[in-house]
Design goal:
single chain, 182 residues, mainly beta, Immunoglobulin-like, 2 domains, three-stranded antiparallel sheet, elongated
Length: 182
Amino acid sequence: MTKTGKIILLIFLVVLVSIAGYFFTRGNETGETVFCTQEALMCPDGSYVGRTGPNCEFSVCPTVEVSQYKDLIRVATPLPESMISSPLVIKGEARGMWYFEVSFPVVLTNWDGLIIAEGIATAKGDWMTEDYVPFEATLEFESDTQVSNRGSLILQRSNASGLPEHDDAFEYTVYFSEDGKY
């Protein structure tokens, strides 16, 4: 290979390495090179976002409709007045104080207040925080829609102390689908 060919090859390799460095790293505000990880964050709607930007912050979750109780718990699915069927998947986020040992109780009642399903919502992250932590629960049930298709979904705050002043619950109306479909 000639001397000119070696110089051209060297310039080509330098340009190629520079381009690769640009696409695989991000510069932060101080000018340091930062490698973004592929870590993902679950959004309340069940989708995921990754880290982007100069400081590798998480992308913003898409806006989803949620039902909120006080400033303690937000439910993305099912929303109040929704048609539900079995198995029912419940997703949302609650402040860490709503949980005890990673979970809290979930109850589904019929129109007469009789319990037709009980389960546990489980945190999908570190629950020992005051911030919101995603949760998920699944309930299987049978409903008698010939009497009434109305029921209540109750998400109860875990109260390890047993003291009544720490009791709380988010309760709202849902409707049972007759054919098992939404």
